[in-house]
Design a protein that fits this description.
By secondary structure, this protein is mostly helical. It has helices spanning about 5-20, 40-50, 60-79; strands at about 35, 55.
Length: about 80
């Protein structure tokens, strides 16, 4: 639930996911995500509620669309 900074991209993408995929020259961003308790299985929902977690949505449609455009441009540049 903290703002995304460059350290998250380095840790999660550059130092982990890119190494697994074997490609470092790819578009990458870290999104904060969301929690929708009503969509969870009962066990997970109960656990989240015990932890005082509420629904939240930190995904911004514009950011997701911009990232999609970035990916599409990268794919099209390789064709």
């Amino acid at each position: 639930m903290q703002p995304v900074g460059p350290e998250q991209k380095t840790v999660l993408i550059d130092n982990h996911l890119a190494k697994i995929c074997g490609d470092i020259d790819v578009p990458s961003r870290v999104f904060l995500g969301r929690i929708t308790l009503g969509l969870m299985d009962p066990e997970s929902r109960n656990m989240m509620q015990r932890m005082k977690m509420n629904d939240y949505d930190n995904l911004k449609r514009a950011d997701c669309l911009d990232f999609g455009k970035e990916i599409l441009a990268k794919v099209n540049s390789k064709v």
